[in-house]
Structures are given as structure tokens and as C-alpha cells.
Write a structure and sequence with these properties.
Helix content is about 0%, strand content about 35%. The N terminus is likely disordered. It is globular, with a radius of gyration of 21 Å. The chain is mostly beta strands. It has a 5-stranded antiparallel sheet, with no helix packed on it. The protein contains 1 helix and 24 strands. It has 2 domains: about 160 residues, no CATH class; about 160 residues, no CATH class.
Length: about 375
């Protein structure tokens, strides 16, 4: 089989010439490669402020980049009525004991992401990406939207932070900018649509917007700045990996707290992408093991974890650095990725920083098995 090479970034490196069998569609200056077997990709995360969420589709080596603070809520297009919050900017929500959005509310500093916020409080979405759960840190922070409107409470919403603009020390990140403030929201149903009400905390009236599900996408995304829908993720079967800042859970003694990670990679579990990690006992042999890894070496049973957890890659691919060491990739591992069409790839992270040591410049290579 001929191998085709496509480089999905202006700063990516060509590693071979394209096969004459490639099929392409061109619109203006944008070229879409319909089938890619091998590539080196540098997702446009944007540097040490990591301003972008970047969604990458391996079968086409295409990336979709969206500014992290451009959306607030995602409305699930599947059978359930579930709403996610934007964990890439440290959003947090708290259910209030009222259904009346006209009631004036006050800020609550405890509704936040950080070391003092226990996961069991349920102020953030469960980081596995699984939407179902009984609350208290399981499933979405916003309860499933009910047919009984008495169950659809008002939520206090901490909108998190704008994308940072401070230039940090080399090797570190500065993802948080100015605080974005607060809103109150309520979500109900109207047939197969969502109805979102939102307002400032001191407002006695609310704005309302109807959101229709779209079966081609995992979620329909909305900004609370203007109540408008926002194009965030590509279609459900047209992306595999998301490079993003991420609100996670982290063990602290016998409890778990909410903890924010930069340089995080999630997989598209709602679209069917699965992945597992291969760790090489002798890191000096990783490149050789990766090069020799073939389709017959794939252990299909190892994909089970990622079917219910979008963090199979997560932050496992890199070291964050510290007082005596800079950030770096872990050179003893690579990943096996299966997309929604059943294509299986081997994938290896090559860089976390640029040549000057600035974070937010990841590079990875992959090959179809």
C-alpha cells in the first residue's frame, strides 16, 4: 500500500512526498485531504497562554481551532438532555434551590475550580466525559434536564477566566486571564429542544434561547455573552483528539479535588474514538519499538478504558517540570488510536515546547497500521 504524507500545520515538517493516489478537495486556499496514512502534526495551541482548543482528525490530518473562552455551554445531541460546561476556562456551577430565574442571586466564591473545591460537590463536569450520573461529582454538573419543570433548577454560574495574555517564564504557562464574571441560568425542555434562560445575577428578567439538537455533532455550543450558538467541535465522526486546557479531578488524601491541567489531550469518546497507551520498559528502545509496531501487535482488549474515559492520553504524555527541571515529553511511551471508522493508528508525541523552550507548541507523528 502506498503511504501518503500530509502536514497539518504551517510549522509542521514534511517527512515524505504525497502519494499520487491522494484525493483532495480544494476551496479557495483551503485544501482538505480525504485520506491520510501518515503525518507529523503541530496543533496550533498557540503558545504559553494556550489560547486555543484544537480538534484533530487523524484520517484527514485536519485540525479545527477554537478560542477557549468563546463558548460556555454544550447541549448534548444524543438521546439524553445533558448540558456540559466549559472546563477549559475553569467554569463551575452550583444548583440553587429555586426554579425562579427572576430571583436576585449573589456570587459564591466557593463555586470554583481549585485545591479547596472537592469533586464531590459537583461544581464541575466529571472529567471522564461520561454524562450520566447521580451528581456529587458524577456525570454533568448540571442535572439532566427533566420533563418535570419543578426539577429544573436555576444554577449559579462562575464563568471562569478569559484567555491569559501575560508572558510567563520560559517553560511555564499562563492560561488564566481576567475573571469573566457570573451568570444565572435555567434549562428546560420544549419538545426535543432545549430552552436556555440566562441573566446577570442582579437581573429580575432573563433572556431566552431555544437550542435544537443536531445529530451530526456531539454537542451544540452556546455563548452566554450573547446567547448565540458557536462552532466548536467538528462533526462527531470527524475528529479524534482535542488539545486543550482541562479541569480534572486529583487525589488529595482520601478525597478528590478539582485541578486544572494545561497541555491536556482528550479523545472523542462520544464520536467513537478509542485509545490505549504502550509503555516501553527501556526508553532508549522506544523509537525502535514504535517503528516496528504493526497491526498484528494491537491488543484490542486494551481499548476498554477509553470507551468510558476521555483521559486515556490526558497529561500522561508529558512531565510538567518543576523548580529544577523544565517541561518535557515522556519518551517511554506511545499510543494506539482507533477512530470511529475502525482505522487504527500508532501515535507518538515528539515535542511539548518550541525550539526556545516555550510551551504550547506540541508536535506528534502518527501512522495508519
Amino acid at each position: 500500500m502506498k503511504k501518503s504524507i500530509f502536514i497539518a500545520s504551517a510549522v509542521a515538517l514534511f517527512i515524505a512526498s504525497c502519494s499520487s493516489d491522494d484525493s483532495t478537495v480544494t476551496k479557495g486556499e483551503e485544501t482538505t485531504v480525504l485520506s491520510v496514512d501518515q503525518a507529523v502534526v503541530a496543533p496550533s495551541v498557540g503558545g504559553a497562554n494556550e489560547p486555543n482548543q484544537v480538534f484533530v482528525d487523524l484520517s484527514s490530518a485536519q485540525e479545527t481551532s477554537i478560542r477557549r473562552d468563546s463558548w460556555d455551554l454544550g447541549f448534548y445531541s444524543g438521546d439524553e438532555f445533558r448540558v456540559i460546561i466549559n472546563g477549559s476556562i475553569k467554569m463551575a456551577v452550583k444548583q440553587l434551590n429555586t426554579t425562579d430565574i427572576a430571583e436576585v442571586q449573589e456570587e459564591d466564591a466557593s463555586v470554583a475550580v481549585g485545591y479547596t473545591t472537592l469533586a464531590e460537590l459537583g461544581y464541575v463536569d466529571n472529567p471522564t466525559g461520561i454524562l450520566t450520573g447521580a451528581g456529587n461529582g458524577e456525570g454533568t454538573a448540571i442535572a439532566e434536564v427533566s420533563d418535570n419543570n419543578e426539577n429544573n433548577k436555576v444554577y449559579l454560574v462562575n464563568l471562569g477566566y478569559e484567555v491569559g495574555t501575560t508572558i510567563p517564564e520560559t517553560g511555564t504557562v499562563a492560561l488564566d486571564g481576567e475573571a469573566r464574571g457570573w451568570k444565572k441560568i435555567r434549562v428546560t425542555k420544549q419538545g426535543n429542544d432545549y430552552v436556555l434562560q440566562y441573566a446577570d445575577l442582579d437581573a429580575t428578567t432573563a433572556q431566552s434561547v431555544t437550542i435544537s439538537k443536531n445529530a451530526n455533532y456531539n454537542f451544540v455550543f452556546v455563548s452566554l455573552t450573547n446567547g448565540q450558538t458557536v462552532n466548536v467541535e467538528p462533526e462527531a465522526v470527524k475528529w479524534d483528539l482535542n488539545f486543550t486546557g482541562f479541569t480534572n479531578y486529583y487525589s488529595a488524601g482520601t478525597s478528590q479535588i478539582t485541578y486544572y491541567f494545561s497541555d491536556f489531550i482528550t479523545t472523542n469518546i462520544h464520536g467513537g474514538t478509542q485509545v490505549y497507551e504502550v509503555v516501553v520498559s527501556d526508553a532508549t528502545q522506544t523509537e525502535a519499538v514504535y517503528s516496528d509496531f504493526a497491526l498484528e501487535d494491537v491488543e484490542d482488549a486494551n481499548f476498554w478504558f477509553s470507551a468510558t474515559d476521555q483521559r486515556a492520553i490526558g497529561s500522561n504524555w508529558r512531565n510538567g517540570g518543576g523548580p529544577s527541571s523544565g517541561p518535557s515529553i515522556k519518551d517511554d511511551r506511545f499510543y494506539i488510536v482507533k477512530d470511529a471508522d475502525g482505522n487504527i493508528y500508532k501515535l507518538r508525541l515528539l515535542a511539548l515546547t518550541n525550539d526556545n523552550g516555550v510551551r504550547g507548541y506540541p508536535v506528534f507523528e502518527y501512522e495508519l497500521l
